[in-house]
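To make this tangible, we now present a fold written out as tokens:
***
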Amino acid sequence: MRRLLTRVINRVLLSEPFTHAMGFEAEIHSHARRKLVVGLGNPGMDDTRHNVGMAVLGELAARLGVADRWRGDKHVSGEVIVSEVQHTRVVLLRPRLLMNINGVSVAKAAGKYGIKPEDVLLVHDELDKPLGKIAIKHGGSARGHNGVRSCVDCLQTDVMLRLRVGIGRPTGKTAVDRYVLGRFSSEEKKVLDSVLVQSVDLLLSQLSQQDSQSPSSSPAGGRQAAGKREGRERSASPAEDSAAAQS
């Protein structure tokens, strides 16, 4: 019932998900490759595990030297920065909607800036990976992540590239909801500093590639195509890379 209600809210808030970019945005993007990088999360909940995607996006903005350029955009229900990475126009997006309806902001931004779903990169927390592990996922199901599910619903495809940032699962009797909405401990923050650096390195690598690694299929065919690739992930953790090299 909760999932159905969320989908209804998505639809109500998203009346025209793919309107063409107009005015200034259309002019600056007309002859450039375009990518949309989104940090999924909840507004006003910085430093929580569920907002680690936004933390990565903040680190990316700092690395690009544009951290002071965030601006609110009511047309996309979020905050945006327009920057460039090796001749690719990159739009950074921090949704200002609750995680469960982040997809509304993502779809509006994709429509405004004329960005295809296969050129959208979602950065989000991942319960099934321990803190310190990150991996790229090429499309596929949301795996229970409500923010990703909202994006799939609003963009009407699952071809979006994802950077999954591990936060691990709660121990003992701690509820998952309470855990993901909780803040990182002082010890976890020491690991997180390294994770943010590695995550930005991987994002810049993806954004710098001349040929898109995203599926080339159209949004209508994205779900079936992405499903076949669901297991194709690459870890960015040095420990996992070392283990893979020895196997």
